[in-house]
Design goal:
heterotrimer, A alpha+beta, B mainly alpha, C mainly alpha, A: Ubiquitin-like (UB roll), Fumarate Reductase Iron-sulfur Protein, Chain B, domain 2, 2 domains, five-stranded mixed sheet, 13% strand, C: mainly alpha, two-stranded antiparallel sheet, 4 helices, 2 strands, 70% helix
């Protein structure tokens, strides 16, 4: 379904030469008045968040982020939100759009009818308006050591760590994570038990665990195989449904439950199996 | 934080979930047929008793019942938590003990056959 | 600059009404109530079987009560739903890589559905239904 490239402009003249009065007007074609309900919170003055209603003229092919940018430029400069790349790569513009965790640069206005409700990502504290505090995720990301821990260190003169295409494909999808935290906003277990390490961080642990060049799995298990690690997951599967990068965290966690169980059996039930 | 002993309860849950998926629907179908008055030949006393009297038959029946009991107990424990019950230790103890007791009774009944 | 982040609590008893996918998840989890109850029925059945022919016939008669039929009907739906969700999940838990490519998830789940059908028909044949 996803096509983040801007859609080409609609044709300015219809093939039959008529019925194009609404198109091709000076100042923009195919405009639409979009209504948004945006959650506002000002830490300096508010104790609670409240919705603010905006009406803004938008191009039909715009995304929600464009509408927010138009509001900020023309209507209300006090509106706060994060964004950077506008092309579903940087992962900073995640928001709840009509209750669904979405990248706002990837949420096309034409997919929505009526008033569009925009809220900050659930399960994260609200810093201001649509800006959330990602501190918890950042701390957890560090704990799983999401980087290559080589099996054996080699001198530069010995050359690179080689890998076959099959070995690359084994973990490739899990390396596509853009740290947008939509999976955390979708995961009810993270919401109910905030100490849960969560989908993206655990999936990145898996990504390195199954990398043929990596030897750090034992270190990561100290986090992965705890109560706060994979065992807090009840396989709701929402993480995989909302991921804009088509990573499948639910599968990574299921696989880690199996390998962690096998570890446990080896460590406790097989004599001398304590590796 | 120490590594979790969750595999002790999760592994039989996963095994039991597989057993439930493969075998329980057809077993429910059989008892439902009996309930609707069309008792399958296999549920007749002589045939079923002969099956349960056989060592392998005992093992199959016990495996299906015990693993299914455990798996549903474990999932029910998670369901309680999801519904907002926070006394997880109590819930887990009651359900796991229930599953074990059910399995023990099954074993006793099977050994009597 | 001082921070005063707003923490929004998740309602612990009603969170699953927030999104249809959570209701789908909860309906999968709730099947465990029916599976568990049906297992208890199986244990009772074993007790009857071990107590002789008369007890077994009584058990079969007890199965015919309307409440029992209604329960077994619901249990059948619940266990079939459990089976479908379980087999759909196999492709996530047990991906299969051959060479560079992964076997399509539908094939892994599909193979489980086929095995399920074969085993079920096998049990029905052994039970003398056909």
């Amino acid at each position: 379904m996803s096509n983040s490239l801007p859609r080409s402009q609609p044709p300015l003249a219809a093939p039959n030469g008529g019925a194009v009065a609404s198109l091709g007007r000076p100042g923009g074609n195919n405009e639409r008045l979009v209504q948004l309900e945006v959650l506002r919170y000002n830490p300096d003055t508010d104790t609670e968040a409240h919705f603010q209603h905006y009406e803004v003229m938008c191009q039909e092919e715009w995304v929600v982020l464009d509408a927010l940018n138009k509001i900020k430029a023309d209507i209300d400069p006090t509106l706060n939100y994060r964004w950077s790349c506008h092309m579903a790569v940087c992962g900073s513009c995640g928001m709840m759009i009509n209750g669904e965790p979405k990248l706002s640069c990837h949420a096309f206005l034409r997919s929505y009818e009526g008033v569009i409700r925009v809220e900050p990502l659930t399960h994260f504290p609200v810093e201001r308006d649509l800006v959330t505090a990602p501190d918890d995720f950042m701390e957890k990301l560090k704990r799983v050591k999401p980087y290559l821990i080589p099996k054996e260190t080699k001198a530069v003169s010995e050359g690179e760590y080689k890998q076959t295409p099959a070995q690359l494909m084994k973990f490739r999808q899990y390396s596509m994570c853009i740290n947008c935290m939509l999976c955390y906003a979708a995961c009810p277990e993270y919401g109910l038990t905030p100490s849960f390490i969560g989908p993206a961080a655990l999936t990145l642990a898996h990504r390195y665990n199954i990398d043929s060049r990596d030897g750090g799995r034992k270190e990561r298990q100290e986090v992965v195989a705890t109560h706060e690690g994979v065992w807090e997951c009840t396989f709701v599967g929402a993480c995989s449904e909302v991921c804009p990068a088509h990573v499948d965290p639910a599968s990574a966690l299921q696989q880690m439950k199996i390998t962690s169980s096998i570890d446990w059996i080896v460590e406790h039930l097989i004599p001398g199996g304590k590796s | 934080m120490a590594k979790s002993h969750k595999p002790v309860v999760w592994f039989p849950f996963a095994a039991g979930g597989t057993v439930i998926a493969f075998f329980i629907p057809v077993i429910v179908l059989l008892t439902l047929m009996a309930a609707l008055g069309h008792v399958p030949a296999g549920l007749g006393y002589d045939k079923l008793h002969a099956f349960a009297a056989n060592g392998l038959g005992k093992l199959i029946i016990f495996g299906v019942v015990a693993l299914s009991l455990w798996s549903s107990a474990h999932r029910l424990r998670c369901t309680f938590y999801d519904f907002g019950a926070r006394a997880d230790t109590l819930v887990a103890t009651v359900l796991y003990v229930g599953a074990i007791v059910g399995s023990l009774f099954s074993a006793v009944y099977l050994l009597r056959i | 600059m001082s921070r005063k982040p707003l923490v929004r609590e998740v309602p612990p008893t009603t969170w699953y009404f927030r999104h249809p996918r959570y209701l789908r998840y909860m309906s999968r989890e709730v099947t465990s109530i029916f599976v568990g109850a049906y297992c208890v029925l199986l244990v009772v059945g074993l007790q009857s079987l071990s107590s002789g022919e008369a007890a077994w016939e009584d058990f079969l008669m007890a199965l015919r009560s309307p409440a029992s039929i209604a329960f077994q009907f619901l249990a059948l739906i619940a266990t079939v739903y459990h089976a479908a969700t379980w087999f759909n999940a196999t492709q996530k838990a047990m991906p299969l890589q051959i060479g560079e490519d992964f076997v399509a998830g539908n094939i892994i789940s599909g193979a489980h559905y086929v095995a399920w059908a074969v085993l079920s028909v096998g049990v029905l044949i052994i039970a003398g239904v056909f």
